[in-house]
Amino acid sequence: MPADDREGSKIAREFYAVTSKSPVNSLPCRAVDKVSAELRPFCLSLVDPDRPGRYLVHRDGDLVFEPKYAASNPDTFDDDASFIVRADLFFAGFDAFESLNRPNHFFLASPDDKLVLSEFNDTPEFRQRASMTLIRRDIKGEFTC
């Protein structure tokens, strides 16, 4: 991976820190054909609004931006860039994001305030760190979270 992509990955982890106020664009799920009809409305892919074409994917537990044209895992890119929004899963009014191709793995705010992908752990701390609130607004047909 070129140096600028590695740096982009580092930025992505910081960009998605729990305290981030930066918007992110959500698009229809890249792997929609692999999602059951009842889950399709809840499946999405996230892109960096400042760098179109760079999708949020999971790599070795980290959530990073990666361009489709230079994917580190091209065979699984669409699956890696697709997440199911689980509304009210752990707390009413909060969402949890589950990986499409790693069921039972969720976005989690790590102790150093980075977002990572972590396997479900039935503890109050996990449920709290995996619960998020999205602020959505529609811009030209795309949601910005």
Short description:
With 145 residues, this protein is α+β, with helices and mostly antiparallel strands.
Structural features, described:
This protein has 145 residues and is an alpha+beta fold. The chain has one domain: Trefoil (Acidic Fibroblast Growth Factor, subunit A) (Trefoil), CATH 2.80.10.50. It has helices at 3-15, 77-80, 124-129, and strands at residues 25-28, 43-47, 54-59, 62-67, 83-87, 95-99, 105-109, 115-119, 137-139, 142-144. It has a six-stranded antiparallel β-sheet with strand order 6-5-2-1-10-9, with no helix packed on it. Strand 9 (137-139) and strand 10 (142-144) form a beta hairpin. The longest helix has 13 residues, at 3-15. The protein is globular and about 40 Å long. The two termini are 28 Å apart. Residues 1-22 have low confidence and may be disordered.
Q: Tell me, rounded to a whole number, the average pLDDT.
A: 78
Task: Please compute the radius of gyration using only Cα atoms.
Answer: 14 Å
Number of helices: 3
Strand/helix succession: HEEEEHEEEEHEE
Strand content: 25-35%
Low-confidence stretches: 1-22
Overall tally of domains:
1
Number of DSSP E strands? 10
Helix content: 10-25%
CATH architecture label name: Trefoil
Which helices and strands, and how do they pair?
Layout lengths: L2 H13 L9 E4 L14 E5 L6 E6 L2 E6 L9 H4 L2 E5 L7 E5 L5 E5 L5 E5 L4 H6 L7 E3 L2 E3 L1
Antiparallel strand pairs: 1-2, 1-10, 2-5, 3-4, 5-6, 7-8, 9-10
Give descriptors for this structure.
single chain; 145 residues; alpha+beta; Trefoil (Acidic Fibroblast Growth Factor, subunit A); 6-stranded antiparallel sheet; two-stranded antiparallel ribbon; 3 helices
